[in-house]
Amino acid sequence: MSGDDQPASPATELDQLRLFISSVTDYAIYMLSPEGKVASWNAGAERFKGYRADEIIGQHFSRFYSPEDQADGLPSRALRTARDTGKFEAEGWRVRKDGTRFWAHVVIDPIHDDDDRLVGFAKITRDITERKNAAAALEETREALFQAQKMEALGQLTGGIAHDFNNLLNVVTNGISMLRERVGEPADVRMLDAIDQAASRGALLTQQLLSFARQQPLKEEPRDANRVINSFEVVLRRASRSAIAFEVKPAARLPQVLLDAAQFETALLNLVANARDATPDGGRIVLSTQCVELAQKRRGLHPGRYVVVAVQDTGQGMSPDVACRAVEPFFTTKELGKGTGLGLSQVYGLVQQSGGDLDIVSHPGQGTTMSMYFPALDVLHDEGPEPDAAEKVLVVDDQPDVLEITSELFRTLGFDVLSADSGEHALEMLERTPDLRLMLSDVVMPGMSGIQLARKAKVLSPALKVILSSGYANPAVDKDPGCLDGFNFLPKPYRMADLVKMLRSIG
After folding, report:
1. What distance in Å separates the CA atoms of residue 238 and residue 307, rounded to the nearest whole number?
2. Taking the complete model, does pTM exceed 0.85, yes or no?
3. Ranges in the chain annotated CATH 3.30.565.10
4. Positive/negative CA dihedral, 324, 326, 331, 332
5. Model confidence at 290: pLDDT above 80
6. Spatial separation of the C-alpha atoms in residues 175 and 147, rounded to whole Å
7. Whole-angstrom Cα distance, residue 427 to residue 464?
8. Architecture per CATH, 222-375
9. Mean pLDDT of the residues in the chain
10. What is the pLDDT of residue 78?
């Protein structure tokens, strides 16, 4: 046998094996002492975990585990399982030298000598983070597809039912109209009124169903969401309770979106009412707007710019199972008789039909955020000129009917009207609208009076022209003689001619 044919010596084979193991980069392969201290270190271990051999040999392998796994005793349990059963295999988070985490597949085998004494452990670790992320993405895609198919099926079903039900309601309402001409007894008239009211409620339900099914015709126009919210804010505040702090946080210079203003206001009202019901013991509701840029596809949203209108509450929150079903028609967690289960269905239908989406983030005990995404218009459309400062007016009154009729008077005169139902609310609006130059406020209001509001408003905006109005301002004047100095006073009741005269006098 020639020298070239001689078999390699055991020492040479062992050296080759060590060289092979130390050179592997796809797996972290290293030895542990019986106590769990690192005894060897290969190139793959250095690549995965970030430690050089001279930094880690002699250190306990538990440092690769997350703090929560260390506290749970997982490292020692893994060695014990390998020793007692002959193998430990698992997946979990591991920690690199720089503190970042990766998802690892781990195998630990015990090593025994010829006398069957435990001399250490062989540990093999593989970074499978990419595989885990790919599996999670696939599962998310499957879930999104299933949810989309389910909602589409529900939409077809509810849309068909709503159309048929509308036809039935049409017969009922027309029949009521004809019967009114023939019925003379007061009791019979009251019965017809009750039937008519029930039919009207039924028509509202069918509208919500059609909205969910995306079969409700939308009158979309390029609109500034902030301006729509501004004009509707007083109604939203009335929808919440006094025990709940209600805040509006509009973003500056939002791009316009295609909106059906009436449907959008209904959606806002539904979201605020839901937030109110979720905070029965008081809390906070924040209505905010912002513009976001999506760089990649997200659920049903394509990359691009979106205006996000969000309603956030500090209420009870929802479990993941409930949040997944929240927009389904007639699904509700409220007590019997306290909800139709169609409010969020209307919101979902509106944003879907507008080319956007509804995002729900909720955690039990931590509140809920409902975010409506609307595609932003790339080209600015003229919504009508932004009113000049002199053409804007803030109307303040704690009586809803007075507030509405006074606002309507100013609209008739060509003003762009903002309204507030309290002094505190009015100050918030003044801070958000620095170019406002005219305010009409009632004098006698709970909390902050109109006089107190006027004084604070003048500090915020010295150029603001203030008209104070009251049918009985004597108590306030008696307490503070001269309190009306510097302000214009319009006694109630007044007519449009009186208001016009006052506006002319103050220029």
Report:
1. 25
2. no
3. 222-375
4. positive
5. yes
6. 41
7. 12
8. 2-Layer Sandwich (3.30)
9. 78
10. 93
CATH number of 389-505: 3.40.50.2300
Give the span between the Cα atoms of 331 and 11, in whole angstroms.
73
For domain 134-212, which CATH number applies: 1.10.287, 1.10.4030, 3.40.50, 3.30.420? 1.10.287
To the nearest 10°, report the CA torsion of 130, 136, 137, 143.
Answer: 170
* Domain span(s) for CATH 3.30.450.20 in the chain: 9-127
Instruction: Give the H/E segment covering residue 257.
Output: strand 257-259
Distance CA 198, CA 218 (A): 25
CATH class of 9-127: alpha beta
Q: CATH 3.40.50.2300 spans which residues of the chain?
A: 389-505
Q: How far apart are CA 298 and CA 137, in angstroms?
A: 12
pLDDT tens-digit series, residues 472-494? 544 444 455 455 666 888 887 77
3-class secondary structure per residue, 71-128: HCCHHHHHHHHHHHHCCEEEEEEEECCCCCEEEEEEEEEEEECCCCCEEEEEEEEEEC
Residues 6+ apart with CB under 8 A from 342: 205, 208, 209, 212, 329, 330
Torsion, CA 466, CA 472, CA 475, CA 481, rounded to 10: 40
Distance from C-alpha of 155 to C-alpha of 328, rounded to nearest angstrom: 9
More confident of the two residues 294 and 166: 294
* Sole residue written with tokens 């909720």: 362
| Residue 294: strand pairing partners | 304
Nearest in space to 492 (alpha carbons), one of 463, 453, 450: 450
Residue 16 near residue 37, CB atoms below 8 Å: no
Among 136-145, 306-315, 384-393, 464-473, top mean pLDDT goes to 306-315
